[in-house]
Amino acid sequence: xxxxxxxxxxxxxxxxxxxxxxxxxxxxxxxxxxxxxxxxxxxxxxxxxxxxxxxxxxxxxxxxxxxxxxxxxxxxxxxxxxxxxxxxxxxxxxxxxxxxxxxxxxxxxxxxxxxxxxxxxxxxxxxxxxxxxxxxxxxxxxxxxxxxxxxxxxxxxxxxxxxxxxxxxxxxxxxxxxxxxxxxxxxxxxxxxxxxxxxxxxxxxxxxxxxxxxxxxxxxxxxxxxxxxxxxxxxxxxxxxxxxxxxxxxxxxxxxxxxxxxxxxxxxxxxxxxxxxxxxxxxxxxxxxxxxxxxxxxxxxxxxxxxxxxxxxxxxxxxxxxxxxxxxxxxxxxxxxxxxxxxxxxxxxxxxxxxxxxxxxxxxxxxxxxxxxxxxxxxxxxxxxxxxxxxxxxxxxxxxxxxxxxxxxxxxxxxxxxxxxxxxxxxxxxxxxxxxxxxxxxxxxxxxxxxxxxxxxxxxxxxxxxxxxxxx
Length: 472
Description:
By secondary structure, the chain is of the alpha/beta class. It has helices spanning 19-33, 69-82, 92-96, 102-106, 128-137, 151-155, 183-187, 192-208, 219-231, 283-293, 310-321, 337-345, 362-368, 380-383, 398-410, 418-433, 435-450, 457-465; strands spanning 4-8, 37-41, 52-55, 58-61, 119-122, 142-146, 158-160, 175-177, 213-216, 243-245, 266-271, 297-302, 328-331, 349-352, 372-375, 391-392. Strands 3-4-2-1-5-6-9-10 form an eight-stranded mixed β-sheet. It has a six-stranded parallel β-sheet with strand order 13-12-11-14-15-16, sandwiched between helices.
């Protein structure tokens, strides 16, 4: 039977370049090829985006116009109030803090007939208002809710600290609480409205829809979500067995080794936002240590940002203060497509020193190109086996990080050479992380949900949801 899937994703189709669009544009066209009927409602970021688009078999609709701020406020207020979530703090100015996310997408009615759908799949807080509305209008419509990060993590209220990999214990040992080490205060960082959408509202939707499920993007992210529920007063044990973790994938035919790309000296690459969450601040000190050990080392830092960015200015000043101007090259370019693949292929090592990273994508893209990733915390540490298909680094211990990179440079990291680890990277990407294989897993998930078998997902599919990188 063909599954009629309706997706809510603020990034999708042409013109979308974020992490969510990478997920959407890789997964859902592949599910179309597997017999799904898929229609996506997405945001219209700019006027040149079409209001209707067919993207590799997925029909994408975008709003033709914004709604009034007062309309967005009323919609948001009424839905949260209907679910018993406090709204005494809510004002139009709260919504205006994130302009257009509500007026162009979050508070705009869906153009699709949900009464004819088999599954509704909302992604991230921008879609949860419609998720809540659909749960009331169509209580028999199964929902597969996806959360890709949380507000406290994005803002820096919490950090991942799974130094030894994500533990099986349900405790806070894998986290750092950044608000004076206070659990509640750390999980209360960020905009309250977004937190209310991510935690209380999703909990209450799951409570209402007993055959639906919520999916996080790694084991540590699942813990993060459940701890966030607890911090926001929710009895998470009532929905815990319908909260799953599932890893993303990578297109190994697109991200591939390019043999004709010349690697000059020993180049360490970084690509990401200019923020301590992504760990960019470790680079100047790390460069100052490594340049004494590896004379031909270069850091290629790709970070598209505004020059007046506070972190960017501090970053550039620190590079000058440490005298590593000729070692660290800042590249303020947003690379996409083939140019991005060429850039990754020009590196000997990809540095991904994130302190908060629910899933991570650069590590997969790097591995798929046959370039070894040196990864920090979070979901990165779950997809990389230290010394097998990458290197584990601690962003807070730069001497240890430098020594690990130096051992890799010398050609003997945990008994393996650069070439051997690089081969394992590519093989891991092809055999485990390729989107074709991940799409097969998503097909199983949606099939189980439409068959009313949500209680069997963990038992039957766990090894597929969370494959182990060493088993190839």
